[in-house]
Amino acid sequence: MKLNWGTSIVIAFIAFISFIMYFVISMNVNKDLDHDLVSEDYYKQELEYQNDINKEENSKELTSKLTWKKTPEGMIISFPEDLDYSAISGKVFLYRPSNKQLDFETTILLSNHNLLIPDKRLLDGRWNIKIDWMYNDKNYMFKEDITY
Questions:
Q1: Which keywords accompany this UniProt record (predicted)?
Q2: What is the pLDDT of residues 6-43, one digit of tens each?
């Protein structure tokens, strides 16, 4: 059987469309290729981004910075010593890029200038830490990508 050029073009189009449809379907079905957004309310957070920038600028104005370190008990977050720790309030959010189920948020409750996050809650690897805190009606924010 001899094919003319019109039939060949139609067969080429059908083969190309089949090839593309195969990849579209396999990408949607394969769970290994399923990636979630960083957060569910991404667009709402994007609108509040300028507030986050202002909070980070406030943090840069502090005389001493917020720090963290890894210990056998867990992660110790140290707030500036020159501030009254009883007036500090806020939240700590730890985001694990590789596994959404490990993300958690905790409230800042200080008995001294240090906050301990227990080692059992943190796996070794990469974490994004975001500390949104308030002191004397002024908001501050600390963000860092860490390897625990």
A1: Membrane, Transmembrane, Transmembrane helix
A2: 899 999 999 999 999 999 998 888 877 666 666 677 77
Q: Is there a single domain that holds both residue 19 and residue 81?
A: no
Give me 39's structure tokens: 């957060």
β strands within the chain, DSSP E? 67-71, 74-78, 88-95, 104-107, 114-118, 126-135, 138-147
pTM greater than 0.70: no
- Does residue 103 contact residue 95 with C-beta atoms inside 8 Å? yes
Statement to judge: residues 128 and 63 lie in one domain: yes
The residue to which tokens 């994004």 are assigned: 128
Give the separation between CA 124 and CA 83, rounded to whole angstroms: 31
Mean pLDDT of 38-55: 80
Assess contact for 106 and 92: CB atoms under 8 A.
yes
Residue-range definition of the domain harbouring residue 69: 42-147
Q: What is the predicted pLDDT for the residue at 14?
A: 97
